[in-house]
Amino acid sequence: MPNTKSSRGRANDPLKQALGRGIALHRQGRMPEAEQVYQSALKANPDYAPIHHALGFLYYQAGRLDVSRESLSRSVQLRPRSADAWNDFGNTLRDLGELEQAVEAFRRAVKLAPDFALAHCALAQLRDHSEPDAHDSEFIALQQAYARSRSGSAERRDLAWGLARAMEQRGECEKTLSLLREAHRLTRGRGTFDLAGTARYLEAIREVFTEEFIASRSALGSASELPIYVFGLPRSGTSLVEQVLASHSDVFGAGELRLIGSLCGQLEQRSGRNFAAAFAALDDAAIKRVAQDVQTQLQRVSLRSRRIVDKMPANFLCLGMLAILLPRARFIHCRRDPLATCWSIYSTRFAEPHGFAHDLADLGGYYRLYQQHMEHWQKVMPGRIHTVSYEQLVQHPVQQIAILVEAAGLTMEPACLEFHNTRRQVRTASAQQVRRPIYTEALDRTSDFDAWLAPLREALGEVL
Fold it and tell me: How many structural domains are present in the chain?
């Protein structure tokens, strides 16, 4: 969000007042109203950089990246010494796949504000530090900013994430682990993850969604073939699979939609029970209404596409409900080696927190629960779920992509093999990786850390 400190200087300035109103509306979640305030102000003065910045940030959060790019580009043209605007511009460019331009934007932000933690972190995520000389000055600047940061601060947390990324690529294992522990401690705060409570929650879902329960209600669902659900744990290849499918001419990649998570939350809030128990209490008419509502909301995501990919990883929690609401949907499960998955989760800075990700033992325990949950879905939804092995996909891409496309109910197109050339917005931690051709370097990321991964191995147990 743009800095508004200067707006206090001239309280009667109409443009500053409009900026303040727009930001207040944005923070309240009233984004259309905020947009209207900003647009009206720009009609009076089209060269007011702070409102271009605020509008670009609003568009970014709304997922309208092309117009975000326009507004933020105008903002940095008008006010080139705004580090905040350059950083927000970099985020938009990165998610659009314009990686070289994103790097330059983050470099401008860091040059203007040498302790700008978020810009340092974003730049480190886009760089390959395995060749130290290539980006040595950026690495030194990142280290210096970290050293100057206050212990326990949010800036220290973000700089630790960025520095850990660079240290891992430089082969500094102990320093990497130390930085990751600090980053996780500051991200988690005083919260703890309740593994036993999570196990009970998942068991309650499985108790409701038996094979008989799903079969007895599937005729109530929508006949739409629109959705392709791509799911699994984070860092298991969901973004890669979505990018492949979204390269098809009939498919729109919608990213991580919150539609199903919101539905589960509403069921729980209204009933005070697990969403599965709340769903089981719905009568036939209510299930039909929910199914139609889900279909309608999906159609609004892309009015012209025959198929839409929702790649929210957490949808693995509620596949039984989806099988009832949308019995003709396609289900694509992404699975990766347990150790590699957990390490990739642990070493990745996510935009939103994952409570199970902050401790290696918790990660291993959560992976076991996830696998148990998936085994249940495979049993009660026989033949409905296609599993993609990340390892097989990157080692045999031509064969595996053809199988994936067929499993999604599509006819193979050459663009699916050239997925890295598909221009579309990607707003996940894999935004950079899906812009590259298939590579195998990530298959062996844990080997250098074996000596420190005993808690994770022990927690994974028989899963390994």
Answer: 3
